[in-house]
C-alpha cells in the first residue's frame, strides 16, 4: 500500500490503514486512550474540512479536533467518532507588512510560529513548549509569553479567525463579525463547536529574550521559602517579565526511567524571562528575584545569571522540565487561585501538590499571571491571579491508579484556594468539581451560543464542563 504523503493529498484513515495508530496516538502523553475513532481525517485545506464535517453529519458521528496533541486527557479522540487532525492544514505562514498581521494554521506549532516570526523580526505571544499546537493553545485562551503584562493571547493579539461550523458553513469571526462565535471561541478549549482553519494575529517588533534562574534546596524550608517567593513576585514588574516558580526532585533529570527519587531532596526553581533591548534592562527588571533573604541564601544550590536566550535554549529547558518521547505517562491537574485568598493560605493549601511529589520526574509549577479579563470580550472570564499545577510524570503503567488517586487527593486540598481551572488542564474523567473554566454567567451565555451553532451536538467536548456547572448548582 502506498504510504501517505501529507504534502500532496488529504487522507482519511480507518482502523485498517497502516498509519491509523500513528495518528490516533499522536499526543504528548504516553498514557494513551483506548478510544478508537471510525475515521481520522488529515485535511490540507479548509474545503477538506468542510467535506469531513458534512460527511460526519451524514454518518451522524461526533467530531473531535486536534492541533498539537498536548491535552493530556486527549478529548479529541472520540470512540466511534471522527478525529480531524490539523497537523497539515493550511500550512502557509503569511505576513502583511502594512498591517503587521500574521496568519497561520491551527496545526502550526509554537516552534513553527516562533521561527517564522523571528525570521521577519516580529513577535507574537505563543506558548512556552515547542510542540504545542497553536489552535489548541489559543482556544484555551493562550497563557503565552509575557501574559502578566498583556493578558492571554486571545484577548488583544488575535484579530480574526476562519471557522468551519457544524453545518459545514465557512465563516469569519472577529470583534465586529459573528461576534458571538468570536466571544465563545476564547476559553472554550476542548468544548469549541467548530473547526478553526485559519488564524490572524497582530505582531510587535521582536525584542531579545533574557532569563535568570535561582535553584534552592527547599527540603528543609519549603513553606517559608514559597511564602517569600509569592510575596516577592508582587515586587517584580509585570510588563515584559514572565515569572515561574517550579518544584522538582534533585535527581529528576538523571538518566533512566526509574519512577522513585533516590535523592529525596525537593528543589525550588525561581525563574524570570524578560523581553527587552539590553542585558542591563533585563537585570533591572529581574533584580527583585535575586533579593533572597539571608535565611534562605544557604539553600541556594545554583544560580544562572541574566543571559540572552534563544528560543531553542528556552525550549530545551522546558523539555527537560516536562519530558516526553520516552514513554513518559502523565496525570495533570491544576487550579486557578482565587484573588481573595492570602499567600499564607495558598502555601498551606498547595504545598502537598508542589512539595509531596509522588514520582522522580513529577514537577510542580506556579505561573504568576496577574490578569483580570473582561467577560464582555471573551468567554475566558475568570480572574487569573496565578495557576498552580502538578505534572505527575512516570513510566510504569501499573502506577496509573495510584497517580490518579494522589492527584485527586492533593487537588481536593488545593481547591480550598481555587477559583477555577485552566481549560487546557480540565479532565472530567479525573476530577469533576465545582471549579469552573469560566464564570457561571459566561458559561450560561456560552451554552446558549453553542446550542445556536451546534444543536445536533456534532462536537461534544463541552459536556464535561457543563456537568461541572450542574454539579455546582446542585450543591
Automatic annotation (TrEMBL):
GO: which molecular function terms?
Answer: FAD binding; oxidoreductase activity
- Which keywords does this chain's UniProt record carry? FAD, Flavoprotein, Oxidoreductase
Gene3D superfamilies registered for this protein in UniProt: 3.30.465.10, 3.40.462.20, Uridine Diphospho-n-acetylenolpyruvylglucosamine Reductase, domain 2
Q: Where is the FAD-binding PCMH-type domain?
A: 33-206
Q: Which cofactor does it need?
A: FAD
Task: Return the similarity comment.
Answer: Belongs to the oxygen-dependent FAD-linked oxidoreductase family.
| Record-given protein name | FAD-binding PCMH-type domain-containing protein
Q: Source species, please? A: Pseudallescheria apiosperma (Scedosporium apiospermum)
Amino acid at each position: 500500500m502506498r504510504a501517505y504523503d501529507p504534502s500532496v493529498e488529504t487522507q482519511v484513515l480507518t482502523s485498517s490503514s497502516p498509519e491509523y495508530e500513528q495518528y490516533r496516538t499522536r499526543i504528548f502523553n504516553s498514557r494513551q486512550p483506548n478510544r478508537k475513532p471510525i475515521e481520522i481525517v488529515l485535511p490540507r485545506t479548509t474545503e477538506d474540512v468542510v467535506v469531513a464535517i458534512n460527511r460526519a453529519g451524514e454518518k451522524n458521528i461526533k467530531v473531535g479536533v486536534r492541533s498539537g496533541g498536548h491535552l493530556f486527557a486527549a478529548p479529541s479522540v472520540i470512540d466511534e467518532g471522527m478525529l480531524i487532525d490539523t497537523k497539515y492544514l493550511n500550512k502557509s505562514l503569511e505576513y502583511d507588512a502594512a498591517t503587521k498581521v500574521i496568519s497561520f494554521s491551527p496545526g502550526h506549532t509554537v516552534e513553527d510560529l516562533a521561527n517564522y516570526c523571528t525570521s521577519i523580526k516580529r513577535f507574537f505571544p505563543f506558548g512556552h513548549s515547542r510542540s504545542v499546537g497553536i489552535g489548541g493553545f489559543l482556544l484555551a485562551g493562550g497563557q503565552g509569553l509575557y501574559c502578566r503584562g498583556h493578558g492571554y493571547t486571545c484577548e488583544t493579539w488575535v484579530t480574526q479567525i476562519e471557522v468551519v461550523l457544524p453545518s459545514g458553513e465557512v465563516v469569519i469571526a472577529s470583534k465586529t463579525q459573528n461576534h458571538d462565535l468570536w466571544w465563545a471561541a476564547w476559553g472554550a478549549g476542548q468544548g469549541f463547536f467548530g473547526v478553526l482553519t485559519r488564524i490572524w494575529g497582530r505582531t510587535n517588533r521582536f525584542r531579545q529574550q533574557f532569563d535568570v534562574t535561582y535553584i534552592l534546596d527547599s527540603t528543609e524550608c519549603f513553606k517559608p521559602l514559597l511564602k517569600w517567593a509569592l510575596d516577592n513576585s508582587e515586587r517584580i514588574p509585570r510588563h515584559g517579565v514572565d515569572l515561574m516558580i517550579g518544584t522538582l526532585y534533585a535527581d529528576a533529570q538523571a538518566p533512566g526511567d526509574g519512577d522513585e527519587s533516590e535523592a529525596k531532596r525537593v528543589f525550588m526553581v525561581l525563574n524570570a524571562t524578560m523581553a527587552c533591548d539590553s542585558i542591563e534592562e533585563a537585570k533591572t527588571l529581574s533584580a527583585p528575584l535575586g533579593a533572597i533573604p539571608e535565611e534562605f541564601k544557604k539553600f541556594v544550590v545554583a544560580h544562572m545569571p541574566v543571559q540572552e536566550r534563544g528560543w531553542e535554549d528556552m525550549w530545551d529547558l522546558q523539555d527537560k522540565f516536562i519530558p516526553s518521547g520516552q514513554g513518559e505517562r502523565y496525570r495533570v491537574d491544576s487550579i486557578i487561585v482565587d484573588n481573595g485568598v492570602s499567600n499564607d493560605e495558598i502555601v498551606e493549601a498547595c504545598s502537598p501538590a508542589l512539595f509531596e511529589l509522588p514520582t522522580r520526574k513529577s514537577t510542580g509549577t506556579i505561573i504568576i499571571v496577574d490578569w483580570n479579563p473582561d467577560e464582555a470580550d471573551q468567554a475566558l472570564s475568570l480572574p487569573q491571579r496565578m495557576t498552580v499545577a502538578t505534572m505527575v510524570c512516570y513510566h510504569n503503567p501499573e502506577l496509573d491508579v495510584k497517580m490518579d488517586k494522589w492527584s485527586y487527593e492533593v487537588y481536593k486540598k488545593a481547591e480550598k484556594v481555587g477559583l477555577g481551572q485552566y481549560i487546557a488542564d480540565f479532565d472530567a474523567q479525573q476530577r469533576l468539581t465545582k471549579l469552573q473554566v469560566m464564570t457561571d454567567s459566561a458559561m450560561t451565555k456560552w451554552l446558549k451560543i453553542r446550542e445556536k451553532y451546534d444543536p445536533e451536538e456534532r462536537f461534544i467536548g463541552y459536556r464535561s464542563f457543563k456537568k461541572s456547572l450542574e454539579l455546582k448548582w446542585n450543591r
